[in-house]
Automatic annotation (TrEMBL):
Listed GO MF terms: DNA binding; DNA-directed DNA polymerase activity
Record-given protein name: DNA polymerase III subunit chi
UniProt key word Nucleotidyltransferase: yes
Uppermost EC category: transferase
Listed InterPro entries: DNA_pol3_chi, PolIII_chi_sf
Gene3D superfamilies xref list: DNA polymerase III subunit chi
E.C. designation(s): 2.7.7.7
Signal peptide: none
GO terms, biological process: DNA replication; positive regulation of DNA-templated DNA replication initiation
Alphabetical UniProt keywords: Nucleotidyltransferase, Transferase
Amino acid sequence: MALVLFYHLTRSPAEETAATLLPRALGAGWRVMVRGTDLARLAHLDQRLWLEPEDGFLPHGLEGGAQDADQPILLGLGPIANQAQALMLVDGAVPQPGEAARLERVWVLFDGLDETALNAARGLWKAVTAEGIHAQYWSEETGRWQMKTEKKPT
């Protein structure tokens, strides 16, 4: 059953949060598509994932290669091309219509200090919960991640 987790970033950058969440997804046996809106930012994330986490390697690649379908973690701008069970949305990327309901997890990482990003996340929350998809809102305002609210399907 789908679960969409909204991560309100106020202290950690998206790259750091991704480097924390992605190993957990791989540990669950999921492939992950990381969708962004800017190829340069995804290339930056690609470089960070080669360095983090320090205690492990995250097998991944940038979209557009011959091995896209085989990547455990694929970073790109387009549709899921690696049969992913999980989707991470960064920099304002959004799920395609009906996509979230077909996945195990969707993480929405958004900059809580950016009013446009905050409003977009609110709109996405309304759309996701209107579809009857389980959603949780997480905040790091206290210095550690805490779930602030949850909307379960009815």
